[in-house]
Amino acid sequence: MIGWGGGRYDVFLLNIDSKLFHYLYDGSWSDFVDLGGIFVKAPKAVSWTKNRLDVFITGTNGTLYHKWSSGDGT
């Protein structure tokens, strides 16, 4: 879980099928969002400024994948 300001918390996890899922708390908990993929290691999330969130995760082929949000839907 990572907090990035304003009472918001984001959780990233692998489900039983090794897909990446995300949910967040911003006053109430959201539904799980399937971010897809098949991964072999737990995701690592960092926030280095308000409204910026980066998630890193390793795929089955050993490749490091990176997903991010800048708080504007990207």
Give your account of this protein's structure.
With 74 residues, the chain is mainly β. The protein has one domain (2-69). It has strands at 2-3, 9-14, 20-25, 33-36, 44-49, 52-58, 64-69. It is globular, with a radius of gyration of 12 Å.
Largest sheet: 4 strands, antiparallel
User: Share of helix among residues?
Assistant: under 10%
**Beta-strand residue fraction:** over 45%
Number of strands: 7
- Poorly predicted sequence stretches spanning 5 or more consecutive residues: none
Return the string of H and E elements: EEEEEEE
| Averaged pLDDT | 89
Total count of helical runs of at least 4 residues: 0
Strand order of the largest sheet: 1-2-3-4
Shape: globular
Map the helices and strands.
Elements lengths: L1 E2 L5 E6 L5 E6 L7 E4 L7 E6 L2 E7 L5 E6 L5
Antiparallel strand pairs: 1-2, 2-3, 3-4, 5-6, 6-7
